Amino acid sequence: MKIHEYQARNLFRKYGIPVPDAVVCHSVEEVEKNVPDDGKLKVVKAQVHAGGRGKAGGVKLARTKAEVVENARQILGMDIKGLTVEKVMVADAVNIEKEFYVGLVNDRNSKSVTLMASAEGGVEIEEVAKVSPEKIIKLAIDPLLGLMDFQARAVALQLFGEIMQALAAAAIIKKLYKLYIDTDASLAEINPLVLTPEKEVWAIDGKMNFDDNALFRQPEILKMREVSANEQKEIDANEKGLSYIKLDGNIGCMVNGAGLAMTTMDMIKLYGGEPANFLDIGGSSNPKKVIEAMEILLSDKNVTAVMINIFGGITRCDDVARGLIAALGQIKTEIPIVVRLSGTNAKEGLELLKSTGLPTVNTMREAAQKAIELSKKSKV
Amino acid sequence: MKIHEYQARNLFRKYGIPVPDAVVCHSVEEVEKNVPDDGKLKVVKAQVHAGGRGKAGGVKLARTKAEVVENARQILGMDIKGLTVEKVMVADAVNIEKEFYVGLVNDRNSKSVTLMASAEGGVEIEEVAKVSPEKIIKLAIDPLLGLMDFQARAVALQLFGEIMQALAAAAIIKKLYKLYIDTDASLAEINPLVLTPEKEVWAIDGKMNFDDNALFRQPEILKMREVSANEQKEIDANEKGLSYIKLDGNIGCMVNGAGLAMTTMDMIKLYGGEPANFLDIGGSSNPKKVIEAMEILLSDKNVTAVMINIFGGITRCDDVARGLIAALGQIKTEIPIVVRLSGTNAKEGLELLKSTGLPTVNTMREAAQKAIELSKKSKV
Amino acid sequence: MSILINKDTKLIVQGITGRDGGFHTMKMKEYGTSIVAGVSPGKGGREIDGIPIFNTVEQAVKETAANASVIFVPAPFAADAILEASCAGVGLVVTITEGVPVLDIIKVSPVAKRNGTKLIGPNCPGLITPGESLIGILPGNIFKKGNIGLISRSGTLTYEVVNMLTKNGLGQTTCVGIGGDPVAGLYFLELLEMFENDPDTDAVVLIGEIGGDAEEQAAKFIKEKMTKPVVAFIAGQTAPTGKRMGHAGAIISSGSGTAEEKIKALYQANVPVAKEPLEIPGLLKKKLGL
Amino acid sequence: MSILINKDTKLIVQGITGRDGGFHTMKMKEYGTSIVAGVSPGKGGREIDGIPIFNTVEQAVKETAANASVIFVPAPFAADAILEASCAGVGLVVTITEGVPVLDIIKVSPVAKRNGTKLIGPNCPGLITPGESLIGILPGNIFKKGNIGLISRSGTLTYEVVNMLTKNGLGQTTCVGIGGDPVAGLYFLELLEMFENDPDTDAVVLIGEIGGDAEEQAAKFIKEKMTKPVVAFIAGQTAPTGKRMGHAGAIISSGSGTAEEKIKALYQANVPVAKEPLEIPGLLKKKLGL
């Protein structure tokens, strides 16, 4: 789960990590009303769940209140990577002497939360990681001991030569780790962490993601969830036991199992088509689930053909076929559907499906080829 | 540091451990005013930092409000092991089907917090431990993992056969452990943990001690400290860098080092005397400290002779002698004082002390013998 | 021979009284897995289908000398179940439960290592040594004894591939579903090494996915350490990259994670990568000179 | 020979820029201890009395190959200092600091064990191998090279005893002050075993105290495992028992803790217990046939 920069900053502040004052506004009116006219340099930032806001024009400096309002007017409603900007954050700008990077992330290789830090912070940090990986300090944190004081201090001393600055940075790193653990985060970044000409250390931009698996025990984090229309569709699907991600193609697919669903998409592409979605219906033969999956799938107006790809394991194909028949009996659509059944009792299942008159096949390859062929003819 | 039962109960409640309702009163008037006349069976308990309250008559059941008042009148002001009862707790009594024991303590052997539990709770638990140690379940808790759910459950299932009761007890044990760690406790006991005829699990009596070394980071616990006059003397001494414990004898002693101070007491006893105190002045030759130590020592009216026992290590005996001379020049007392100096530069030190006219000796044995001899003559 | 499990594997089921636990216990037993105990706190002393139930894993191990455990308990309690099994000395713990918080698995990992427990999963279908022992939710009927080892991050896709192997006469020594979670137990490296050392395994099928750099590491290991042929398939070649984890995710797996990078690394290790699952049996036969 | 430290011991001082740390660094250096580095965050690169200062123990170990560390940092930071030394691979860490929270030491202990670090202290005077190395705050001048090992829970009392040993011609291999805190590092058992295995140690003096059951355990060890003579003294024979820790304290050390019980256990292990420190040299000489 993602949250906005302003929400991450609120968490930072709650944990004692110093962030400049800021106001969040949903409209130009709110900006006019709520942003203080205090003559301080300000930065207006789009709040969307997308990277590259700066390059897209979603981050602007403002010297006067009038400039703040004008910038907010430009940014609000802007489209960044397909997302509409509905909020801006107006924050006090800070003078920057030097920018640093600090991040925490779950690392599958070391099976630990890993601290990363660099004296080369800012927007180009990924480039630094690629070109000069030696400039990124990495530290795998012992999950039972947590981040020890001496470790935070040692890392901070590599970034900041001066001890008081290093201790300030070490304290921030320790707090970020505590926040990370307390909230079941999967990513926490301060980029940039800034040293001002006055030798103060501030967290300027923050980013946090959270482990979806742990949201059941993180009610405060869950409250922060804001979702776009597409994400809402994915969440609704999830609540029905379906895993759905909308894509840009025209061949809808419905598959049991995530790996098989990804492979189904690959097959469609391999044979010249474009998948319209990822959709994993899990291991059940329940007709209700098939109907719900079909409804979600067909709500995408780009879909011109559907490929149903089922491999029977513990669930037998004949049971799955019965579920499909029940479901397809209730779904009225002009869109052509091809069904592939394989695995346990596939023969019996395919036999049962004959009654539906739907084209049935035995392999994924055939299914993909057939679906592509049908999609070209269908012109829905 | 010790706290009263009612304070431990407040901590229990804060951590979600179920305890019956109770009121704490400092006087019979408060009892009359604050204890509800609700017809419930109540128990009136002396709040003092001493064990064996029950045997001393400091715990009484009361069926009516009148009985509560009468019991409180008897208990308030009572002397239990030299401590005056200044507070009573009046708690709702609970019907008891069975009593259990649960305790946590720092264990030097396993270098861990150790959980102890027994199905034979109540006042005789120490006797159980001696006679039937197999009836006490002991579990060393991994300091990095903490008390794991399955461990708390396994212990609780050994006490309570029924799963719902066991889960209730396991939850209590988990909360007690969290409380223990959060507050740097050195002891936490629920005795008895009670199963009622209604199959509810309640913590009836609670006891907690805390690690003095950790009080610097436990301001909330420190606020609970209540000390007797003798304890206050010990705390005052501590703040001056002195370690003082009052005893019942008549020979005051002043020693550098805790082990040597204990040994000095042993020597006094070995040669037929009775030590008046334990007093460790630490490793300094600062005259101010010696004066303060002497004042504390002489404030005990039982003292009829003083033995000063110094071993010079890093601190040289001649330096110590100069400190003693400066201090003894300011202290006016009729009580005889014998000084023993040994170790680094002892000869020079003893030479310097000649000017004081005090009897000086070379060994602990001589010092003890001399002090006892002087105490018999002194009759202060 | 085989890896990890065989006919001497004595299995405990943790969460045997739950719906999934009960159903798959029956299925595993039908397959022939030696299930010696179930664990369900408070239900100790009972029996289910002739399987004795214990309150704790410790008791179960003491009474039955069990050496493996499979976990079906709900996600919030899965980590504690793993710890219980590991601390009771169980050598192999297979966690089927999905939705386990990542930080729980991170916390459990060093404890398992300290106790010498091998973990598989969470969120995995389990593993099978055909004809000897099945642990998890795999459909036993599609597997066949043979000389191919298989390691997969995916569930149904594994069945798809195994089904084709079996139909093509390519039986399996052991098939391990390692699960798709961000942090998990045994992974490609450890399992490739086990297959390399297993005298009955002649070739290995590796089924990877986009994300992480486990396949790249596997390629490096194969290049440097393996003598046996490996054939691979990578799922998600066309999946959108939008779902990645910001800067930190990119930094931690710098230059890794996409299907192209994985496939490139595997080719460099002389591992043929199937374009579609149907190609796998053919690639294997070619490598084995069949 | 000796135990734990000798002329090859290369010492780091953590907290070298503090008042006590600075003073005792000077004293140790005067005695001849090989002090190779000091650690003080933010002061890395400087020198104090020719001793190079580093920001971290890790750097200090890397540059100097130090194998021991002594800790003088204030109590709230002592546990972190121990962890830093242990995680940097230092094999012996001696904590002089007093007032360290018990739960901090409990947390640090398993980490030290995992890293193979021996801990001494906290709240201890340190240890000495006369003529070779002194770590801590012991007064070096009272010690003399010889064949007696000494282990003590007390500070000044140790000096008292050592002074008498030296005056009676009984020199020492190594003297270790293990400290008086409720939970501490190396204790009687481990050190008795080291002395038993040290070819140059002919007899051991054990100085115990009331509280806990370490002396009873030592007695058991001596009876079962030791061939070398041991002489003991127990301080606090007349101390009041009121300061004990309620039921749990009594249960955990059931039937232990008082001076009488300790003395009884030691006599049963054929260990003479001195009534007063003055008796110790005589008892030793008798045991050694001098």
Verbal overview:
- Chain A is built from 13 helices and 18 strands.
- Chain A is of the alpha+beta class and 380 residues long.
- Chain A has three domains: 21-92, ATP-grasp fold, A domain (Dna Ligase, domain 1, 2-Layer Sandwich); 98-222, ATP-grasp fold, B domain (D-amino Acid Aminotransferase, Chain A, domain 1, 2-Layer Sandwich), CATH 3.30.470.20; 229-379, Rossmann fold, CATH 3.40.50.
- In chain A, the strands form five sheets. In chain A, strands 7, 8, 9, 10, 11 and 12 form a six-stranded antiparallel beta sheet that branches. A four-stranded antiparallel beta sheet of chain A has the order 1-6-2-3, covered by helices on one side. A four-stranded parallel beta sheet of chain A has the order 14-16-17-18, with helices on both faces.
- The mean pLDDT of chain A is 90.
- Chain C is an alpha/beta fold and 290 residues long.
- Chain C has ten helices and 13 strands.
- Residues 243-247 of chain C have low confidence and may be disordered.
- At the B-C interface, helix 5 and helix 6 of B face helix 3 of C.
Helix percentage range of chain A: 25-40%
Largest sheet of chain A: 6 strands, antiparallel
Structural class, from secondary structure content of chain C?
Answer: alpha/beta
Q: What is the CATH top level name of the largest domain in chain C? A: Alpha Beta
Looking at the overall shape, the CATH architecture of the largest domain in chain A is 3-Layer(aba) Sandwich
Low-confidence stretches of chain C: 243-247
For the record, give the distance between the C-alpha atoms at the N and C termini of chain C, rounded to a whole number.
Answer: 22 Å
The H-level CATH homologous superfamily of the largest domain in chain A, spelled out, is Succinyl-CoA synthetase domains
* Percent of residues in beta strands of chain C: 15-25%
| CATH architecture descriptor text of the largest domain in chain C | 3-Layer(aba) Sandwich
* CATH class call of the largest domain in chain A: Alpha Beta
Uncertain parts of chain A: none
**Count of DSSP H/I helices of chain C:** 10
Q: Provide the helix percentage of chain C.
A: 25-40%
Number of strands of chain A: 18
**Whole-number radius of gyration of chain A?**
26 Å
Which class do the helix and strand fractions of chain A yield?
A: alpha+beta
Shape of chain A: elongated
Provide the succession of SSEs of chain C.
EHEEEHEHEHEEEEHEHEHEHHH
Number of domains of chain C: 2
